[in-house]
Structures are given as structure tokens and as C-alpha cells.
Specification:
Layout (H helix, E strand, L loop, with lengths): L1 H30 L4 H26 L11 H26 L5 H25 L13
Length: about 140
């Protein structure tokens, strides 16, 4: 069950990475600043952090035993699993969307985005879903 949980959380985190980058690109297209990365990367990181923390809260509040929130070494394994999932998700999506294979540089860019973003996302999810934490307690009203 632990492997299943790690694989699923890693996949969800990767899907949220890609979705966040696409939304960040949409924000860039909408606002057209001089520097794309200075807007897209922080926007995508904030979106991903929010989505993954929300995912953790939903998993915890719905009490889905198979997908309990990863902690400690499990969180580290989810972090690493997201790197494995990245090319498995991004390459086919890029091919379907653009009609050609992505460059290795795009994969490196995604991995470089994942390092700080996924670190912060996992830390935030772990913090807000900690036992006894205010956000972790379902409302009673």
C-alpha cells in the first residue's frame, strides 16, 4: 500500500506541476510582461503549492486510507517519484498538443521547476495536514 500511495501522490504532484505551468503560461500571455519566466515560474509555483496542499487536505478530510498524507521518508519518495513521472506525463502531452517531441531542454526546465516547487508543496501539505493542526481538523458545524 505504501508503494501505491507514493506512486499516486507522485503522479498527482506531476500533473499539478504541468497544469500549473500551463496556467502560468496563460497568465503570461494575458499580461505580456517583458520577461516570461519572471511571471510564469512564480505564478505556476504558487498555483502548484495551493493545488497540492488542497489535495492533501482533501485526502485527509475524506479519510482515504490508501492515500493518507505522506510524511518523512514517504514524502521524500513522493518528491522523487514526481521526477520519474515528469517525462512520462509531459512528453506525450507535449506531443499531443504540439505535434512533435519535446526537447531535452524542456525536460530539464520542468525538473528545475520541480525541485523548489515540489519541496515547498510537500512541506506545505505536510504542515497543513499535521495531526492536531488547525487546517487538518474538519469543521464541526
Amino acid at each position: 500500500m505504501k508503494v501505491f500511495r507514493i506512486v499516486v501522490h507522485g503522479l498527482v504532484l506531476t500533473l499539478m506541476n504541468v497544469l500549473s505551468i500551463l496556467v502560468g503560461f496563460g497568465i503570461y500571455v494575458l499580461l505580456k510582461p517583458d520577461n516570461q519566466i519572471l511571471l510564469q515560474a512564480p505564478a505556476a509555483a504558487l498555483i502548484c503549492l495551493t493545488l497540492f496542499t488542497s489535495w492533501g487536505l482533501a485526502v485527509q478530510n475524506l479519510r482515504i486510507g490508501l492515500l493518507s498524507v505522506p510524511r518523512g521518508s514517504e514524502a521524500l519518495l513522493v518528491f522523487l517519484a514526481a521526477f520519474v513521472w515528469a517525462p512520462l506525463v509531459f512528453v506525450p502531452l507535449h506531443f499531443l498538443g504540439r505535434g512533435y517531441m519535446t526537447s531535452f531542454g524542456n525536460m530539464v526546465g520542468l525538473w528545475l521547476f520541480q525541485v523548489p516547487t515540489n519541496s515547498l508543496s510537500l512541506l506545505a501539505m505536510t504542515y497543513f495536514t499535521r495531526p492536531g493542526g488547525r487546517a487538518a481538523e474538519p469543521s464541526s458545524g
